[in-house]
Specification:
Blueprint: E1 4-8, H1 13-24, E2 28-35, H2 48-59, E3 62-67, H3 70-77, H4 90-108, E4 112-114, H5 128-137, E5 144-145, H6 157-160, H7 178-188, H8 205-217, H9 223-228, E6 233-238, E7 241-245, H10 249-258, E8 264-268, E9 278-282, H11 286-298, E10 308-314, E11 321-325, H12 330-336
Parallel strand pairs: 1-2, 1-4, 2-3, 4-5
Antiparallel strand pairs: 6-7, 7-9, 8-9, 8-10, 10-11
């Protein structure tokens, strides 16, 4: 009977290679794929989640996909081991993933977990000391095999028990993926679908600023709020008010669908004036109403500084109101921009 193993399969090149290697060595592999509101690789047409499923179909293995939602956002708010360069809590993220993977490993009866991690590839989470910390905090010390760098690391329990032949493991390190590509081509005959790796919006400086603003102003932020950070232009008009401005028709449609029932829609009232749909979240008085109108007017097409008639309504309401507003000057726009 084949020994069962659990692959942490992102769909990127390294985890895909590790999975192919372990299958070629005769292990019965089940794959586990994680996603979050901050993944840059979960588009409907292609992306790492889809690539993980595609690879699973190709190799004849089961792929379980798990979404990390509100609990992940709560972790991002206050990570025990801090952030990377921006808002990326890489160490805490890996601990959360590994703890869940441990539960799945026990559920499916796998002897060990393996990953596509490469020593030295990611400075915060893929160095030897941090790898040991992550495994210890997740209760997986000695249970995580890293086929691509195993010869550079202490033997795991599976290697000590003779389940894995250490000589068949690799000794890749660093950020270059030339060796991975060579192995894909020469050992497996694969030259396509070599997605280098997944991505996380929390490593992006611009997005991280939006996330920091959200957490600073909303103690109950959830998955919907995090997903809205991807859409439109964002403006913080006061501690209690944020405005999201659609950049094109597609974003206008997305905002209309994603807005909460208590949010307000603002847009140009005249049909012959092309402009954005804007979502106002929070409370506002007359002063903020004027500010919102200035932002909406600023992004109306054909803006020549003339006043624009603005209409607004609550998403869940039936009535609407309108007023005139002049476009905001650029210094105010930049003052409010998140």
């Amino acid at each position: 009977m084949k020994v069962k193993a659990l692959s942490l399969l992102s769909g990127g090149m390294d985890s895909a290679l590790a999975t192919r290697i372990m299958i070629s060595l005769g292990f019965d592999v089940t794959a586990l794929n994680f996603s979050s509101p901050f993944c840059t690789c979960t588009r409907k047409d292609h992306g790492c989640k889809n690539e993980a499923k595609r690879l699973g179909d190709e190799l004849g293995i089961r792929v379980r996909v798990e979404f990390m939602g509100k609990e992940y956002i709560d972790m991002v708010r206050n990570p025990k081991y801090g952030y990377g360069k921006n808002m990326n809590p890489c160490v805490d993220c890996r601990i959360m993933i590994f703890r869940r993977a441990k539960e799945v490993m026990e559920e499916v009866g796998a002897a060990f977990i393996f990953t596509g991690e490469v020593v030295g590839q990611r400075p915060m989470s893929q160095n030897s000391n941090t790898m040991r910390l992550i495994e210890k905090q997740s209760g997986l010390s000695g249970k995580v095999v890293k086929p691509l760098s195993a010869k550079l690391l202490p033997p795991t329990q599976a290697e000590l028990d003779g389940i894995i032949d250490r000589e068949k493991m690799l000794a890749i390190q660093g950020r270059s993926r030339k060796e991975q590509i060579r192995i894909f081509k020469e050992d497996f005959g694969v030259t396509e679908n070599l997605c280098s790796s997944g991505g996380c919006l929390l490593t992006d400086q611009h997005f991280a600023g939006r996330m920091r603003d959200l957490l600073d102003h909303d103690e109950t932020a959830d998955v919907k709020d995090a997903r809205l950070l991807r859409v439109g232009r964002h403006f913080r008009l006061s501690d209690d008010l944020k405005l999201i401005v659609g950049r094109d028709e597609a974003e206008n449609d997305r905002l209309e669908k994603m807005a909460g029932d208590d949010d307000f829609f603002f847009h140009p009232a005249d049909e012959d004036v092309k402009g954005p749909l804007c979502v106002a979240q929070g409370s506002f008085g007359n002063e903020q109403l004027s500010d919102i109108g200035q932002v909406v007017a600023r992004y109306c097409k054909g803006d020549d500084g003339a006043s624009v008639k603005i209409e607004y309504r609550r998403k869940s309401g039936h009535g609407s109101w309108s007023y005139m507003a002049r476009p905001a000057v650029e210094t105010r726009i930049e003052q409010w921009r998140v």
